[in-house]
Amino acid sequence: MFLNKYSNYFLGLLRIVSGYAFVLHATAKFWEFPVSMTGGNGAVELASLMGVGGIIELIFGILLILGLFTRVSAFLLSGQMAVAYFMFHAPKGFLFPLANGGETAFLYCFIFLYFVFAGAGAFALDNKISKK
């Protein structure tokens, strides 16, 4: 197929877009940008469960965008989303992510898990480091 030659570029694009979307979750928690995750009640506390999640999202989301330590970052982010799904969504109906509000966590979990196995794709700092 003629599209196969572009798969590495699309993988890189998917990594960058997924990392960017995830970083936005952190900025919403800490700086209420582009929206507030707290309903306008200020930033989340760093020492809270949401705060720790925001720190993970910010640090490892940026690493994912850069394609630096991609597999490790993706593994941690996938785990975070699995924990989020099982803690907050699965009790409302395990087999139905759309009904329990966990569709985003469910998809993020598997997208990030895909990067663990597929790697960073194009446009990644990991590629520059591995060449040296």
From TrEMBL:
Keyword Transmembrane: yes
Keyword Secreted tagged: no
Annotated transmembrane regions: 7-26, 46-69, 105-125
Gene Ontology CC entries for this record: plasma membrane
Subcellular location as annotated: Cell membrane
Pfam family, one: DoxX
Keywords: Cell membrane, Membrane, Transmembrane, Transmembrane helix
Membrane topology: Multi-pass membrane protein
Family: Belongs to the DoxX family.
The protein's name in its UniProt record: DoxX family protein
Organism whose genome encodes this protein: Aggregatibacter segnis ATCC 33393
